[in-house]
Fold Adipocyte plasma membrane-associated protein.
Amino acid sequence: MALWRLLVGYHGGWIRQKLGLPLKQAQTCAAPHEQPRRPARSCYSGTRWWLGVSEGRCGSLAPQLLGKLSRGGGASWRPWDACRDGGVASVWQPLKQAGARGGASRCGPGSGAAHPLSPASLGCGVERPLLISVSRRTVYRNMNEADGLRQRRPARPQVLTEDNASQAGKESSTYSNRVFRVTFMTLAVSLIIPLFGALIFLDCPIDPQPISFKEPPLLTGALEPNVKLRQAEKLFENQLVGPESIANIGDVLFTGTADGKILKIENGKISTLARLGHGPCGTREDEPTCGRPLGIRIGPNNTLFVVDAYYGLFEINPISGAVRPLVSSKIPIEGKNLSFVNDLTMTRDGRKIYFTDSSSKWQRKDYSLLIMEASDDGRLLEYDTVTKEVKVLMEGLRFPNGVQLSPAEDFVLVAETTMARIRRYYVSGLMKGGEDLFVENMPGFPDNIRLSSSGGYWVAMSAVRANPGFSMMDFLSEKPWIKRIILKLLSQETVIKFVPKYSLVIELSNTGSYRRSFHDPNGWWQHI
């Protein structure tokens, strides 16, 4: 017959494990005088569980069962009298030994192998009674019954076996993982879609070219890191705006600054000697009109020779400040514009002036784009002060920057910034017109070059290639597609912020070997 019943038997450690499962609290039992509408099932009333027990099968398990199911105090077990085959006695005795308080009642209606042990109230409105079947090793948890015990046929139970109990835990974990994955994918898609849209529809301002570097030299020996640059004294702090190159006549200093001025510093006082452009000044976009004096040298008769990134080559009287244009950037040289005039060097007699044009495409205000693109449109040029002619000595350079004529005036050194090397061009002697590498694979990207008092050359690094360490430019050199993505998404100002703050000046011998170096790992001195 279709009865809801709880079968409990002795089955070793397994039933103990099963009794350790959490039991859902049921509703309170009906009053004792009420007749049961159905055979007994488990019912929790207050602090007690009322159980239906199969005859003769409790055995020595009853004390453990009672201890498991009682809530704090003792559990009251009311067996029914005169139940068939002595089933009550066989079950009641071990329960009594375990501390249950006995009581008399009558047997419930019907007969069968299952004899209920319960109070007279068997018609309790149990929501989810627990049924345990030892022989089948299953645990049944009834579904909610809409009409309580009046319902003839119980809702179909859910079966939990030993295997699928662990499976249920796995399913719960799987569900949590699924929720996490869905949430993560939603966030990822919400970011990726706009990103791909930007990559597809935004223009890239550059056409980057792949280049390759050797592994940077180890910073050991003459390149050993130190803090010598921190020992330098700061002069005229916050009074000069980006001085680039410095020249002197005796104790008088001359320099060009970012606000387009040629300044004269004498007896500790700063004055404006000349101005090559005109206002407004102050922003990157103002540079083409404001002007940006860069390289500056002292020529014969103590005259100044200055190159402006936007205006060209000039001669300036150091006393009166009178300006005389020599080479205008508005006039193309051999079919190409002078877009970024950078530095100059000259012979002692002042006849020849050698200067660099860093790019025929990019202006100084876009120098970060020039570096990222790695374009090879830079040139070394020669100006003859007598014939007024300009000719190209070297071309195909990647960001030619500082230049320096050798003490014997037989060659010119050119810092090729993007390639982290210094090129040499012979201007006299048997090698005239030839070129080679003076220093390659430098520990940084060279900027200006000047003679040292010991017969070598000082080289300032615009950025370093630390080894050990990480160099962003080395990493990106052979990945032009990454450069495109960066320049589509980030401004030049943002890109520049990724340049490591590390200052470095190196002294080279007259053969190009490293003599010594001055470091500031924290970048206290920047943009040397």
In short: The mean pLDDT is 76. The radius of gyration is 47 Å. The first strand starts at residue 43 and ends at 45.
